[in-house]
Amino acid sequence: MKVIENRATKDEEKMEIQEMQLKEAKHIAEEADRKYEEVARKLVILEGDIDDL
C-alpha cells in the first residue's frame, strides 16, 4: 500500500510541474502572438508610408 501512495504522490507532483510548465508555455505563446500582431500592424503602416512617397 505504501508503494501505491508513494507512486500517487510522485504522479501528483509531476502533474503539478507539468501544469506550471503548460501555464508558462501558454503565457509565452500569448506574448509572442501579441508581439507578432504589433509588428504586423507596424509593417502595414510602413508599407502605406512607402506607397505615399
From TrEMBL:
It comes from the Eukaryota. Residues 15-49 form a coiled coil. InterPro entries: Tropomyosin. Keywords: Actin-binding, Coiled coil, Muscle protein. GO terms for molecular function: actin binding. Pfam families: Tropomyosin (PF00261). Belongs to the tropomyosin family. This is Tropomyosin alpha-3 chain-like. The gene is LOC117798871.
